[in-house]
Specification:
The protein is of the alpha+beta class and 188 residues long. It has a domain of 128 residues: Gcn5-related N-acetyltransferase (GNAT) (Aminopeptidase), CATH 3.40.630. Helix content is 30%, strand content 32%. The chain contains five helices and eight strands; from the N terminus they run ββαααβββαβαββ. An eight-stranded mixed beta sheet has the order 1-2-3-4-5-6-8-7, sandwiched between helices. The longest helix has 17 residues. The protein starts with 8 loop residues before the first strand and ends in a 5-residue tail after the last strand. Bound molecules: coenzyme A. Coenzyme A (COA) binds next to β5, α4 and α5.
């Protein structure tokens, strides 16, 4: 069975990216509560439980387990001292063998938008995914009306590969998405 060894601790000029420990669940719940309205239009419908520390304690435990078994790398973006969650970038559905691919999803706190923070976090974490995890393709999908997300992916070198009708349920509705991906630049 596949086993990913050491946990990532990625340092960028303004943030730190890591898998949080279950005892840090409170700052995840704070991030989710503070951004409940901001993120609602871009994400699946969330239950009330989703906004509690008890929920995040379990999710952080699951994220660590899924990291070790090589299924996902769910990174939390914090300030350098890990006092505040600024956002998340989740590399999930890792498929190995002849695909070596994963899906990328991300969200940034409303108050940290417009400063290049997510660009900085994704650039550094993509380097980790390509160089350390060794994946070949990272796929990311966005709503056609999500201009900020489309701009961010384009700046990171993601290429549009198509459009999928009623691809994902967002805020209670099946929504069309733009499909993009980025190939590992270190491969020939
Ligand atoms: C999508 C999302 C992460 C984009 O956040 P963002 O802050 O716009 O993204 P970036 O990190 O690329 O920052 C770009 C902005 O910072 C500005 N900026 C300032 N300093 C910068 C720097 N050093 N480097 C890059 N950009 C910088 C850019 O000009 C740009 O501002 P503008 O949008 O006003 O032109 C954020 O809007 C979000 O979380 N949205 C809700 C959830 C969501 O949509 N998730 C994705 C679903 S597909």
């Amino acid at each position: 069975m596949f086993r990913q060894k050491s946990l990532p601790h990625i340092i960028t000029p303004r943030c730190r990216l890591a898998l949080l420990e279950p005892h840090q669940a409170e700052i995840m719940a704070q991030f989710r509560n503070a951004n409940r309205l901001h993120l609602r239009q871009w994400e699946p419908t969330r239950s009330d439980q989703f906004f509690t520390a008890a929920y995040w304690e379990i999710q952080l435990r699951i994220a660590l387990k899924h990291f070790r078994t090589g299924n996902s790398v769910c990174l939390v973006i914090t300030d350098p001292a890990e006092t505040e969650v600024m956002g998340v970038c989740n590399y999930t559905n890792i498929v190995r063998g002849t695909m070596m691919s994963c899906q990328l999803g991300y969200a940034l706190a409303s108050r940290h938008q417009g400063q290049g923070i997510m660009y900085e976090a994704l650039q550094a974490s993509l380097d980790y995914i390509f160089e350390e995890v060794g994946l070949h393709r990272v796929m990311a999908n966005y709503l056609p009306r999500n201009q900020r997300s489309g701009d961010l992916l384009a700046r990171l070198g993601f290429k549009i590969e198509g459009h999928a009708e009623k691809f994902m349920q967002i805020n209670g509705r099946w929504e069309d998405h733009v499909l993009t991906s980025r190939i590992n630049p270190n491969e020939c």
